[in-house]
Specification:
The protein has about 350 residues and is an alpha+beta fold. It has two domains: about 30-145, Beta-Lactamase (2-Layer Sandwich); about 160-349, Alpha-Beta Plaits (2-Layer Sandwich). About 55% of the residues lie in helices and about 20% in strands. It has helices at about 5-45, 50-65, 115-145, 160-175, 190-195, 200-215, 240-255, 280-300, 310-320, 340-349, and strands at about 70-75, 80-85, 90-100, 100-110, 180-185, 220-225, 230-235, 255-260, 265, 270-275, 305, 330-335. Strand 10 (about 270-275), helix 8 and strand 11 (about 305) form a beta-alpha-beta unit.
Length: about 350
């Protein structure tokens, strides 16, 4: 009897241990099945789009599905892409993504709770499903960028300008924010081509593009519209600010000398400025800036003109005389800002 009791206790313990082992094995199998199903689901979602924003969003949704509350930060310096989903947590896993020696960017996964070894293995398997879709999305992004970029100046092209202007106008309408446009045309450009050749003409265009980029602010977007004409979109900028910036651009270009074997070439540019009004769309705003540009060319070149309706809302309001509005009924105004005294004298006549 004394021997039978320990044997019975041992058998019960072995049975209990086996049951616990079977329970853990079943739980592990279910976890693995769930993880495998999630991997297939995420892999399928990643194949549905070439838009890098949608690809990263799909991957993040998969993270939430597999790990619960977590965050993701993805960056690709060459493409100037930086995407963040969720709030960065204390515990982080950072990975440099590469494919066949090509850098695909950097990704950081984080959450408040520390990742277990099993979760890190699962996370790295998940990242393997991201690599090819991410590479395809980046290639597509590069192709889009090339289609929207001028090959001579490396500026955004006309197609990009039209899309950007449409977006900025809608944003200005929705937020009731300011928006201005500058159009620029190199003066006597045909003579430069005729006298010095088209290669020199191309050099002048490149130098003007460089001068433009050095003179504008980092938040402004510069485009080569076509030929020797350029456009600058200035978000959150009123007429006065746009006029000051246009003058800075004009002076920067006028101060340039283009080296040539027959002697340095002096260049100048004419500029038109217009600001968004609530009834404007992209086409009407561009038409106003273009009208101001051609007035600048008609009145002597190497000058800046502001579209008349913009001046009407700023200068005549300052004078506070309704009759002074007659001065701004012409299509464009002078680049030199009219003083209150000049307006009063002109109105008196």
């Amino acid at each position: 009897m004394s021997l039978q009791q320990p044997i019975s206790d041992t058998m019960r313990q072995v049975t209990a241990d086996q049951a616990l082992f079977d329970q853990h094995a079943e739980q592990s199998r279910k976890t693995e099945d769930k993880a495998l199903a999630a991997l297939f689901r995420i892999s399928g979602a990643l194949q549905t789009s070439l838009d890098i924003h949608i690809v990263i969003q799909a991957f993040y949704d998969g993270l939430l599905d597999m790990f619960g509350s977590s965050s993701l930060e993805y960056s690709h310096k060459e493409s100037k892409i930086n995407l963040v989903h969720g709030i960065l947590g204390r515990h982080r896993c950072n990975y440099q993504l590469t494919l066949h020696g090509k850098t695909l960017g950097e990704i950081t996964i984080s959450r408040r709770k520390r990742f277990t070894k099993a979760e890190i293995v699962l996370l790295e398997n998940l990242l393997c499903t991201l690599v090819n879709p991410l590479n395809n999305a980046l290639l597509y992004q590069e192709a889009l960028a090339a289609a929207l970029r001028d090959p001579l100046t490396n500026l955004n092209n006309r197609r990009a300008m039209e899309a950007t202007l449409s977006r900025e106008v809608e944003l200005a309408k929705r937020c009731r924010s300011t928006l201005s446009l500058i159009t620029l045309d190199i003066d006597h450009f045909k003579k430069i081509n005729d006298n010095y050749g088209h290669l020199t003409g191309d050099q002048v265009i490149v130098e003007v593009a460089n001068a433009l980029q050095s003179a504008v602010r980092s938040c402004d977007i510069v485009f080569r519209y076509g030929g020797e004409e350029f456009v600058v979109i200035l978000s959150n900028t009123d007429t006065h600010g746009a006029h000051l910036l246009a003058e800075r651009v004009r002076k920067t270009i006028a101060d340039q000398l283009i080296p040539h074997e027959d002697g340095d070439i002096n260049i100048s540019a004419s500029l038109g400025v217009a600001s968004f009004e609530q009834l404007d769309d992209g086409k009407s705003l561009f038409a106003k800036a273009d009208a101001a540009l051609y007035q600048a060319k008609r009145t002597g070149r190497n000058r800046t003109e502001v579209y008349a309706s913009d001046l009407e809302s700023t200068e005549t309001a300052a004078v506070n005389k309704p009759s002074a509005a007659k001065l701004t009924k012409t299509k464009v105004s002078r680049s030199k800002r009219i003083s209150k005294t000049e307006l009063a004298e002109a109105t008196a006549h």
